[in-house]
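USER:
Class, as today's exercise, take the chain set out below, and explain how the chain folds.
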Amino acid sequence: MRRISKEILRKINLQRKMMGITQAQLSLKMEKSPQFLTKVKQDDRDLKVDDFFKAAEALDINPCYLLPDDILENLNNENIEEAIKVLTNKGYRITLEESEQKKSIGDDKG
């Protein structure tokens, strides 16, 4: 299975540099420790989906722009659900975590 975290981190780094901010500044905008992105890159860790979305939000870009180019070939880059389907069909393992916000909304309905 191909790991795409490195490609996503490369795009995050490129966008970050275009914005003129450091890795530490971006990590803090993502509500992480200043060393977060450095540790992810150095330890060769996978980027969690939640962190992927936080990075896109901190960079003020659509999350789809951070996906590898070959994945985006046939996608409308506004449709993350379709991106997830394509990734799954290509053999990628997708791990989605329920956000605390969604949990609290669901708890309020009961």
Observations:
- The mean pLDDT is 77.
- Residues 5-109 form a domain with the 434 Repressor (Amino-terminal Domain) fold (CATH 1.10.260).
- The chain has one domain: 5-109.
- The two ends are 40 Å apart (CA to CA).
